[in-house]
Amino acid sequence: MHRVGSSGNTASSVRPRKEKRLTYVINHPDDKKHCAGVNCLAILKSHEPDTRDYLFTGSRDGTLKKWELTEDAASCSAVYESHVDWVNDVVVVGNGKFVSCSSDSTIKVWDCSSDGACTRTFRQHSDYVTRLAAERENRNIVASGGLGGEVFIWDIESSLRPISTSDNAPEDACSNPLNGSIQPGSNLRPVSSSSSISLLPPQSHGYVPTSLKGHKESVYALAMNDSGTVLVSGGTEKVIRVWDPRTGSKTMKLRGHSDNIRSLLVDPSGRYCLSGSSDSMIRLWDLGQQRCVHSYAVHTDSVWALASSQTFSHVYSGGRDLSLYLTDLTTRESVLLCTKEHPILQLELHDESIWVASTDSSVQRWTAEGSSPQKAFQSGTSFLAGNLSFSRTRVSLEGSTLLQVPLHKEPSLVIPGTPAIVQHEILNNKRHILTKDTSGSVKLWEVTRGIVIEDYGKVSFDEKKNELFEMVSIPSWFTVDTKFGNLSIHLDTPQCFSAEIYASDLKISEKAEDDKVNLARETLKGLLTHWLAKRKQKIGSRAASIAESPLGKDISSRSLTNSRIEVDGTVDSDSAVYPPFEFSTSTPPSIITEGSHGGPWRKKVTEFEGCEDEKDFPGWCLDCVLNNRLPTRENSKCSFCLQPCEGSPAPSVTLGKLSAPGVLRIHKVASYVLEKVVIDPPINQVDLDAPFSSSLSAREFQQSAVGIKPRQKLKPSVEILCNNEVLPSDMSLATVRAFKWKKPDDLVLNYRVMHGR
């Protein structure tokens, strides 16, 4: 708990502090492929002979990838991993940089020639950042828009200049060692006019972008002309706003669409604009005349992607109807280039071809006649685009002969992806997850190792789930989602520390079989084993250098670490990582979390440097791994009443209401009864109201077993029953309550002593 002051209220209030979550993403073995839909594309053209062009792709799996292109192949040369949510757009800028935006509300700048280094992170937006736009001539000015309604203009060169941080600069404006982020968001001033600009003088601790004010709802589309003199934006307000990026002033507002605007283009001169909308229409606007001059009804559903020819005479369009069209803006002639199995999200022209990104994890290249698009109309399969949005829809429904056969049947090149997980089920043992991907393949994953332990192929998911059913009850210690196309395991304290299992059930030979293993603690140790090793090396090297200095003996051991977290010598620091918790180093998982500074970050567990501390990790996580301290948890004990069976020949002794850990096995309860009733019966056997202990620990139950081994293969002399059903000796109390008792009130167990057995 911590005390929070409230403005306007002199009395202090106490609110529970929300602890930060730690998530680990189980990556696919082939991490050079996307495993979720590809949202965005950008081409880096080479202007030197004998050098390659590159394609950058951003995906819903949270990563960006760089592809080296040849005539008939594309090879992944770099993976960029730092965003903690979907990557929504990417643009190439000057000086060998490219910029990405994400649903994590950040904008990141990257080095095109690096193997994945993020240069800077900006957290100016208040919500998802959905779209970017960049000028082509200067290649240094970038606009960003998002669901918060904000539009910002960024000077990338200025934003990357070295920052001189003064002693009194806010901590959250400084760079994070993990992602190089700065947070200048608190320095924007509110602007009263909807068409004005908020531009602050340079701050000593960071770059502040230009803020364009006007949108009151989400922004889904942005476009800028080549010279950076015209910027257009649109979104859920169904209007197009036109801006001058140099001054930040809004020059006009255009109306015409009846639904959300999802895609925009501006011609190189800044005179004409193309828009695609969820109303299925494409519109051509004359910005000089401030009106729509043509409407094109080509699609039967939302238009999500546009790309124009170099002369802005033809437009390529795709969207929710799975179709890619080419339309002549002058003659209104249209032709269906191809159809896909998934909605089209973005298009990128590249010489004579066009790259197509969709909700599938693969990327396709199709022949497009980019320099001479009129050649596509020579096939004789073209049609005239209508003027009304329902015209093409009506033609489609009536089965008219105008329905086109695609000009191309197959793409000229495919960059394959990995099938995304679309269905999952956490099994009762809370260590295995059954999944099904887009290809129909069903697999069984082990959460505590992050690997596939069984690939069942294309079988029925429900039948396999029923086949794998176990009558066992383990507390839920994690949650899971598949928004990245793979498994993301979320750990929240203190709930994640609620599950314990006997070492014998995990086949850990290094521990006694009755030792209880906390699943979350051991999983965290497995995830951070590389970080712990690196940290130990750094502390050792610093200690050696200090020892060699004349003042070494006067420096306390506390200064040997950057972290304020220290190992508590009074605690049993079990640092060994057991086999059921060993993660692969060839396909390491990625961690998503945040510490006290810098915001959320994402990184593979094998890329830690050992210098990360509480500024980067949640405090509860470090306390668990370094100090072996677990937070206070809710009472996980199971209350139950132990009574003799009616008509049992055993002494009729009621042992009263007891409590024990839910993981306790029935054979332990039987051993307890054996000692209390048979071997050492109470003196006052006839007094059923005699007092008994109301709470017994697992150790007390174990000590009462009088030398009988839990796994001893002897016929039991005591049977434990629930609802007149004899319980298996290896069943836990929690399982009995969940599957046998099935009532909210205290569990009632009956015992029956079997003489002569």
UniProtKB/TrEMBL annotation:
Disordered: region residues: 164-197
GO MF annotation: an example: ubiquitin binding
SUPFAM superfamilies: WD40 repeat-like
One GO term of the biological process aspect: double-strand break repair via homologous recombination
InterPro entries membership: WD40/YVTN_repeat-like_dom_sf, WD40_PAC1, WD40_repeat_CS, WD40_repeat_dom_sf, WD40_rpt, WDR48, WDR48/Bun107
CDD domains (UniProt xref): Ubl_WDR48, WD40
Signal peptide coordinates: none
Pfam families: DUF3337, WD40
Keywords, alphabetical: Repeat, WD repeat
Record's compositionally biased regions (Low complexity): 186-197
Polar residues bias spans: 176-185
Extent of the WD repeats: 80-111, 122-164, 212-253, 254-295
Family: Belongs to the WD repeat WDR48 family.
PANTHER family: WD REPEAT-CONTAINING PROTEIN 48 (PTHR19862:SF14)
Protein name per UniProt: Uncharacterized protein
Species this chain originates from: Kalanchoe fedtschenkoi (Lavender scallops)
